[in-house]
Each structure stands twice: as structure tokens, then as C-alpha cells.
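Re: the request from the purification team.
They wanted to know what the chain is likely to look like in 3D before they choose a buffer screen. I agreed to run a prediction and write the result into the notebook, where they can find it.
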Amino acid sequence: MADFDCSWPTQVDRSVIEELMTLQFLADATHGVGKKMCACNLGCQAILSSQTALFVIAGQLLGDLAAPDSDSALRSKLRRYAAPDVLLIDEVGYLSCSNRHADLLFEFVSRRYQHKSTVVTMKKAFADWGEVFPNAARVVSLVDRLMHRVAVMRIEGESYCAKEAQERLAARAGQRSGKSGRSKS
């Protein structure tokens, strides 16, 4: 986080980031919303503070929970994902979910609710989750649980990954032009 360029996004609240890095949200079993890099840093900070953390892509989590062919296997997977002090779920809302996946996500979030902290990264606002999850009533309950005692960190601006890629391309172009300038002399 020390290298995070807070001047790049058009909006980011550095004080929220700094507060989250204290890990107080773990003691409160609160949730967070942000982007992948910030979420990964929260996970690392938790591990450095002797907490347990797990980072998982939402599609991987839901696929893994939907795969078991028995109730006992599903309960085992739910326990595995419910165990970490902080669970970081990346890319929620990127893909449409079936009723089964939405049911599993709701059950899973309900198990962690007020017991363990969950950090979610997403591009869609909660108001747009109806496009992702087929059952509106379930979406309201899911968002309700995620938003209770939450720290929302809204980041606006172009992709940080795209910014870094452009910087690498510019640096390579500069290196190439420097080499070609030397070979002409």
C-alpha cells in the first residue's frame, strides 16, 4: 500500500484505506468493498497480524460451492470458506449468476454475517445487482447483510492495471528510441 498512487484514481479516500489497514474491521466482523489491489493488501496485513485470510475469485467460489454432489460435501466446502478471519471475494457481479449460485452466495454470506469479515471487490453498484442475480428478494437480503457495518471504499477512475501497462509501454518505447539513437551515432 505504500506504493499505491492515490493521485491516479479520480476519487479515493486515503483515510478509509488507512483505517482498513489497521484491521479493526476484523474485530468487528465488518465487510469492505474495494478493488483487488487494496483487498490483497488487506489480506496480507491480516496475515502479518497472525489472522487468517483467503482470497478467491467469485466465479471460483461459486463454482466450487456448486460442484459437490452431496450435502455433506457442500457443508465441508462451506466450512472451509467460512473459516478465515477475513475472506476476500474478487469480481462479484462480473458474471450473471444462476438461481443456484445466488442461493449459495446468500447462504455463504449469511454464515459469515456478524461472525467473520468479508471483503468484496466489484464494479457494479449494489443497486445494479439485480442484473447479476435473478431473484430480487434474495439480492435485497444479500446486499443488506453485506452493507450492515460496512466500510465502503469507492474508487473511480481508469483501471490502475491499464495505467501501469501504459507506463511500461512508454518506458519500453523510450528504451527502444534510446537504443536506436545510440546506434545512429
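For the purification team: DSSP finds eight helices and five strands in the chain.
Please add any questions underneath this entry.
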